[in-house]
Design brief:
By secondary structure, this protein is mainly α. It has one domain. It is built from 12 helices and no strands. The longest helix is centred in the middle third of the chain and has 28 residues. The radius of gyration is 22 Å and the shape is globular. It is found in: Cell membrane; Membrane. Keywords: Antibiotic resistance, Cell membrane, Membrane, Transmembrane, Transmembrane helix, Transport. It is a multi-pass membrane protein.
Length: 322
């Protein structure tokens, strides 16, 4: 059992390294992914901040907006994981991965962990601009905000992975994620306090995972602001008169991500995930996989073969003929 777990951990680490390397190559995409939240913070924070009253607390609208913009910043790399799965499937690279004698849970877990890592770092970059938003440069505050981004990134990455294994192609994936994320963002409390919503809509927002990410980040920030900041603008989410704690919201995000990952693994295990209309050709023919990806596949198969040999030796069997 220990030998098998060690081998699966190596597979997860190999997939994680491959995904992180691929993401780092797309530096322009990472920069553009930060452009939207930065523009929102600058335009809405300054524009609406001029007409939204701070209630005498001295804390402006741009400070209220900052935690939500941080959560929005994790969306791009989180959903890039799903796009990566669809890209691998179109190139036939995914088929090569599935032919390796490894558990499919390990393949998906490696991708999700890589997406979570990239998304968390992506959102944490915005902390460099915290001072411009009226957020104090406090190491304890920054550490707490990054801790909030981890389950938020995990939840969004798992959701993107679930959509990727359920949808037929990249275009459908882009259209579906746009359709889903629009309402999720608008009803998460990024742009306005949830206290202004009617009671029935508040219940709907409570089922939104982004709501709990934004509220957890905002509650963490409020603890480091003047006491007057806990006015209507910074009022926390209430469901049936109850206010979830930050820990409860982070647990809810983690459970949501785990559920999406579980469903993605179930769907990923179906035989039709091995095939794609453009993947009937072996890698290297027609739409070829890159040479580095072919080498990575060889390494994955070799590690998996070594795992099988070590597992047989652990059981007391001989690897070759007697």
């Amino acid at each position: 059992m220990a030998v098998r777990l060690d081998a699966e951990a190596r597979v997860v680490a190999a997939v994680w390294r491959r995904e992180i390397t691929t993401l780092l190559r797309g530096r322009l995409r990472l920069v553009l992914g930060l452009a939207q939240p930065m523009l929102l913070l600058a335009t809405l924070g300054i524009g609406l901040g001029a007409i939204v009253s701070d209630g005498g607390s001295g804390v402006g609208y741009v400070t209220f907006l900052f935690p939500g913009v941080m959560v929005m910043a994790v969306q791009s790399p989180a959903l890039a994981t799903g796009a990566s799965i669809l890209g691998d499937r179109e190139l036939g690279f995914l088929r090569g991965m599935l032919m390796a004698p490894v558990r499919r849970e390990s393949l998906l877990l490696g991708k999700v962990l890589a997406g979570t890592t990239a998304a968390t770092c992506h959102g944490a970059v915005l902390l460099a601009f915290a001072g411009a938003a009226g957020v104090p440069y406090d190491p304890a505050l920054f550490t707490s905000l990054v801790a909030v981004l981890v389950p938020a990134s995990f939840a969004l990455t798992s959701l993107g992975t679930l959509l990727a294994v359920c949808l037929p192609g990249p275009r459908t994936f882009q259209a579906t994620t746009g359709l889903i994320l629009g309402p999720l963002v608008l009803l998460s409390g990024v742009f306005f306090p949830l206290s202004v919503l009617p009671a029935w809509l508040t219940v709907v927002t409570a089922l939104n995972p982004l709501t709990h990410a934004v509220e957890a980040a905002r509650h963490t920030l409020t603890a480091h602001l003047p006491a007057a900041a806990s006015d209507t603008l910074f009022a926390n989410l209430r469901v049936w008169g109850l206010r979830p704690s930050t820990v409860e919201e982070l647990v809810a995000l983690t459970c949501f991500g785990a559920l999406c990952l579980f469903l993605a693994v179930r769907r990923f295990s179906r035989p039709d995930q091995q095939e794609h209309p453009s993947a009937h050709r072996p890698p290297g023919h027609g739409a070829p996989a890159r040479s580095c990806e072919r080498r990575w596949l060889c390494l994955l198969h070799r590690n998996a073969g070594r795992r099988g040999l070590r597992h047989r030796l652990a059981l007391g069997h001989h690897a070759g003929p007697a």
